Amino acid sequence: MSHKFRFSKESKARLKNFLLGEKAAPVEEPKPEEKPAEPQPAAEVQPASPAAECHVTAVCRTDIGKMRKTNQDALIEAPEMHLWGVADGMGGHNGGETASAGARDGLKELLKGKAPEQGSLRTAIGAVNRRLFLQQKEDEKLSGMGTTLTVLWFSDSCVHIGHVGDSRAYRLRDGAFQQITDDHSVVAELLRSGMITAEQAAAHPMRNVITRAVGTEEGIEIDLLCEERRKGDVWLVCSDGLYGMVGDEKIEEILKANKPEKAADKLIAAALEGGGRDNISLVILLDKEGNA
Questions:
Q1: Is 59 strand, coil or helix?
Q2: Helix (H, G, I), strand (E, B) or coil at 141
Q3: Coil, strand or helix: which one is 123?
Q4: Do strands 223-228 and 158-164 pair parallel, antiparallel, or not at all (unpaired)?
Q5: What's the pLDDT band for 98 if we cut at 50, 70, 90?
Q6: Does domain 5-23+52-287 sit in CATH 3.90.550.60?
Q7: What is the CB neighbour count within 10 angstroms for residue 249?
Q8: Contact assessment for residue 4 and residue 147, using Cβ atoms and an 8 Å cutoff
Q9: What span, in angstroms and rounded, lies between the C-alpha atoms of 39 and 61?
Q10: Average of pLDDT values for 92-121?
Q11: For residues 144 and 102, is the Cβ–Cβ distance under 8 A?
C-alpha cells in the first residue's frame, strides 16, 4: 500500500475542519481499553481452547497485481484457530511487507490457544500495534510503516471482527450483500457525512488516504464487531486492491454465481482485468455450521 498515507489524530481533526467546514473537536486521548497492552502471562489468563471443529470452508488468494514490484499484503490463515483475515501494508522499501507480516504473525502468536472473544482480540491487536510502532522507532528504514488489518475469528455462535484501516469485510446472507466494516479513510468520512456521493468517492483524489493503521502510532482505535453466525453465510475479507478495481455489484454477482474456490479465482481475474494497480488479496469463507 505504498500509495497510501496515515494521518495522526491532530491532522485528522484539522483535515476534517478544512474539508467539512466544521470546527474540529479537541483531540482526545485514547480510552483506557483502546490503549495497547501486552497480553497477560498465561499463568494469570487461561482462556478455554477453541472447539476442535469450526465447519467453515476457507479459500485464500493473493496476487501482486500488474503495477507493484512487491506484494505488501499478508493473508491471515489459521484454520486451527478459526482465524482468517487480510493485512495490507504500507511503507517504503520493506516497510509494508514487514508491517503486514508482523500483524499476521503477531496475531497468530498472541491468540493461539485462546477462545474467540472480543477482549482477547482487542488486547492482541493492541499488542501487535505497539510491537510494530516500537520496531519502526528502532529502525529508521521502517519509519512510517503500518498496515490495515481486518480479521474474522469464529466462535461457536459469533463471528468476532477486528478492523483497522480500509481493507473490508463483506457478508452475503440470504441473497443480500453487505459491507460490514467501515473504511477508515478521508473519503469514507466525507461519504458518511453526506459531503460527497458514492460516485464522487470512487474518483476522489484523496480516495487512497487512510486515517487509521496498525503500527503508526503508540495508541490505536480498533473497530470490534460481533456478528451472529448463520449457516450458509458467505464472508469476503479483502484489500482495496480488489474492491478498488472491481465494483461491489460485480463482486456480489461473482459470489452469488460461484462456489468459493471458483469465486476467488474470478475475483482475482476481475481485479487484474480492471487494471491490477495494487496488490490483490482476499479470503472467502463459507459458514456451514451457523444457526439456520
A1: strand
A2: helix
A3: helix
A4: antiparallel
A5: very high
A6: no
A7: 9
A8: no
A9: 30
A10: 95
A11: no
Write down the pLDDT at residue 4: 57
Q: How far, in Å, CA of 50 to CA of 13, rounded?
A: 41
209-210/5-6 β-pairing: parallel
Rg for the chain, CA atoms, rounded: 18
In the chain, the amino acid numbered 262 is: K
Each residue of 181-227: pLDDT tens digit?
A: 999 988 888 878 788 777 777 777 677 789 999 999 999 999 999 99
pLDDT at 9: 56
Task: Name, in order, each residue with C-beta under 8 angstroms of 170's C-beta and a sequence gap of 6 or more.
Answer: 177, 178, 179, 180, 235, 236, 237, 238, 248, 251
Q: Which amino acid is at 67?
A: M
The predicted pLDDT at position 16 comes to 54
Cell 500488474 sits on residue: 66
Distance CA 281, CA 63 (A): 6
Name the β-bridge partners of 262.
none
Which residues fall within 8 angstroms of residue 155, CB to CB, at 6 or more apart?
Answer: 50, 82, 115, 116, 117, 229
Helices assigned H by DSSP within 78-204: 95-111, 118-138, 186-192, 198-202
Out of 82-91, 141-150, 205-214, 275-284, least confident range: 205-214
- d(CA 235, CA 248) in angstroms, rounded, equals 14
Phi and psi dihedrals of 274, rounded to 5?
-75, -5
Q: Which of 238, 243, 245 has its CA nearest to residue 277?
A: 245
Backbone angles phi, psi at 161, to 5 degrees: -120, 130
Q: Parse the chain into domains and list their residue ranges.
A: 5-23+52-287
Q: 184: closest CA among 229, 138, 150?
A: 150
pLDDT on residue 195: 84
